[in-house]
């Protein structure tokens, strides 16, 4: 048996303690065993400094972690650089400014629908998921008929990932492939122009003196969709839970909305909406005092790294005036999230619309928030009482 398979586990990511409170469990691991091995997850990296080392060393820690094409997330330079140059313009200041009023209308319309149902709202199922899917479809130019199917798909994908159900995951991958292929084919048949929507624009992009293939377009759209639906939904739940439980912070952003961007990033630093990302070692490496062989799985734990007390004083506390430079909410290095401008826009616009429609909101004392389980972060349920205007 190989040394790799003989290695003793430092922890059990599937233990009841971890499932009960991921944030506390990862905080404990960061202090006890900052680079930890488990049979389930390979090597987990919890400390901020070690995570930054991985992020900045793409030669030894490769993003090519899957046998399936992943554009550009699962690529390393120089290939990553070429495709990244195609992606970034979609999130530049001009397209973001053009999308803002569309995003605002979506938030306003959804809040009107939810307000009509009453004051007691389960945020994740009644609000957060619907906002995430509506905004994503609007940004990509997808029809509203996909809203409910995509919510069902995202929930099923999360369950299958949590259960490590490879059969279900394969079926779900084929289901999303079919949706994306159909959207592309519709545009091919209609002779869509690059200016029609984001999806059509991708069909006219070129790489290496040729147009992107359907497989490449599909990979980009899948990455955007899978990432967007989960993280935006989780972010709304985390942010609203915090403000509902902290009236002083809610008052601050109500009085001065210019503080919203910093408040959003700081609250999401303390409770990251994205659990982690994967890498694969290309050679033997030393990390955090541990020896890791070539071809091993390395899992970056954003939640623990962003709460590291060696980097953030009183790390578990939300401080709106904290220096944001070390915040890894959107990653760092060459693979920093290209969609960060869109995510920040969506969160800000959603909160501005919510404050326009409410005087205050607070948690339901008889229904405590239920934490989400891996692979999700944030909350599975959050009940909030809204005082609608």
Spatial order of the strands forming the largest sheet:
1-2-10-7-3
The level of helicity is: 40-55%
> Topology as H/E string?
HHHEEHEHHEHHHHEEHHHEEEEHHEEEE
Q: In the residues, how many domains can be counted?
A: 1
For the record, what CATH class applies? Answer: Mainly Alpha
Please identify the structural class as seen in this structure: alpha+beta
Provide the gyration radius in Å: 21 Å
Please state the overall shape, judged from the principal axes of the Cα atoms. Answer: globular
The CATH level-2 architecture is identified as Orthogonal Bundle
Q: What is the residue-mean pLDDT, rounded to a whole number?
A: 94
Largest sheet: 5 strands, mixed
Tell me the total number of β-strands. Answer: 14
List the helices and strands and how they pair.
Elements: H1 3-6, H2 16-20, H3 22-32, E1 35-38, E2 42-45, H4 48-55, E3 61-62, H5 79-87, H6 93-117, E4 120-122, H7 123-140, H8 147-162, H9 166-190, H10 198-203, E5 206-207, E6 210-211, H11 214-245, H12 247-255, H13 260-270, E7 276-281, E8 285-287, E9 290-292, E10 297-301, H14 302-305, H15 340-357, E11 358-363, E12 370-371, E13 379-381, E14 383-388
Parallel strand pairs: 2-10
Antiparallel strand pairs: 1-2, 3-7, 4-14, 5-6, 7-10, 8-9, 11-14, 12-13
GO molecular function, one term: iron ion binding
Organism: Rhodopirellula europaea SH398
Protein name: Cytochrome P450
Quick recap of the structure?
One of its GO terms (molecular function) is heme binding. With 389 residues, the chain is of the alpha+beta class.
